[in-house]
Write a structure and sequence with these properties.
With 345 residues, the chain is an alpha+beta fold. The protein folds into 4 domains: 54 residues, no CATH class; 57 residues; 133 residues, Jelly Rolls, CATH 2.60.120.1440; 72 residues, Phage tail protein beta-alpha-beta fold, CATH 3.55.50. The protein has 8 helices and 18 strands. β4 and β5 form a beta hairpin. The longest helix is centred in the N-terminal third of the chain and has 30 residues. The N and C termini lie far apart (161 Å).
Length: 345
């Protein structure tokens, strides 16, 4: 290819238009002469046109308005978000929707309030169970703890225990088999004593007329507190199996000893064990277990010693053994049993 350096500006313009096909084909000799002067071969004109178009396409791509496009996208996003907010605002402002929302909130509060009130009411409502002349053996408290009541005993407890503690009150004698729960201690208020445990079995005797509280542990560990002392300097005992704690009202003392009574829960089990035990003590145990009155008409009978074991036998059988062992007579008069000595005593 060769070029003619003497081309004028108007000729360059015409040449450019010819390349871009912006000027219709002309038979003008001047136009033809310009093209002929610039391009020696006719095929060069078409080749220049193709190259020019490729260059234009490249620059058009490079000049794509990216920022403008992103602005359009952001504008679309904001428009969508604004539309959602507008809809939500309309829902909130609309009286009907506001009324529905108020009802929904009130219902949720009512349900939550009902649960709180129910729990409070259940924990504050006290139940009481009493045993008169007969033993009430093994009934369950709300937490699953098993309790047996001796005669002339009553226990009060909430319909539902609180979340932190399980507290009951007793007057009389009861045997507890506490369901373990380290996060919810079991507390018994018995007269002037407070007994606190986590999970164990033990006997509590707190008859008002005895003026004392006795706690005897069978399994586990029990804490006994003297409630009559200053709470800061409260007197406390820790009892383990075989221990006996006694709070004596008259001296306001809390004592710990080893339990020497094998029949401390015979009122519940009817299992009795005597080893060289005086007949007077035997009779006291029989009255406590079988809820009867037994009298010895001769003071000399008190000193007789009995060694025997009775596992859930009837009172008549036990009295027959005593009668045979000591060669005494047993009489039942008006529901009472009277032990008398015979002529050979």
């Amino acid at each position: 290819m060769k070029t003619n350096q003497s081309l004028e500006d108007k000729d360059w313009v015409r040449l450019a238009k010819s390349i871009y096909d912006e000027e219709p084909k002309s038979t003008d000799e001047n136009h033809s002469s310009v093209v002929d002067e610039v391009f020696t071969y006719k095929g060069e004109t078409e080749q220049i046109r193709k190259i020019t178009r490729q260059v234009d396409l490249y620059y058009d791509l490079k000049k794509y308005p990216v920022e403008e496009a992103w602005k359009k996208v952001e504008s679309q996003i904001h428009r969508s978000s604004s539309t959602k907010q507008t809809i939500l605002r309309k829902l909130i402002v609309h009286p009907l929707y506001r009324f529905a929302a108020a009802i929904l909130i009130a219902a949720l509060l009512l349900v939550a309030g009902y649960e709180v009130i129910t729990n409070y009411s259940a924990s504050s409502q006290m139940l009481e169970i009493s045993a008169a002349r007969q033993v009430l053996n093994k009934f369950a408290l709300p937490d699953g703890t098993l309790v047996s009541l001796n005669s002339d005993t009553r226990i009060s407890y909430p319909r539902k225990f609180g979340r932190k503690t399980r507290e009951v009150n007793i007057v009389g004698e009861a045997f507890f088999e506490v369901k373990p729960n380290k996060d919810q201690p079991f507390i018994i208020h018995a007269g002037k004593a407070q007994i606190k445990v986590v999970g164990t079995s033990f006997n509590v005797s707190a008859y008002p007329d005895k003026k004392l509280v006795e706690v005897i542990v069978e399994t586990g560990k029990v804490q006994v507190v003297n409630k009559t002392t200053d709470s800061i300097k409260s007197e406390t005992l820790i009892l383990t199996p075989g221990d006996k704690g006694t709070l004596v009202y008259s001296s306001n003392t809390l004592n710990k000893t080893t339990n020497g009574d094998p029949n401390f829960i015979a009122w519940k089990t009817h299992n009795l064990s005597f080893k060289a035990t005086s007949l007077k003590e035997v009779i006291e145990n029989l009255q406590n277990v079988y809820k009867v009155t037994i009298r010895l008409d001769d003071p000399k009978l008190n000193g007789l010693l009995l060694t025997a074991r009775f596992n859930n036998y009837s009172l008549d059988f036990i009295l027959k053994v005593i009668e045979t062992t000591f060669k005494i007579e047993v009489h039942e008069v008006d529901g009472q049993y009277i032990l008398t000595s015979n002529s050979h005593f």
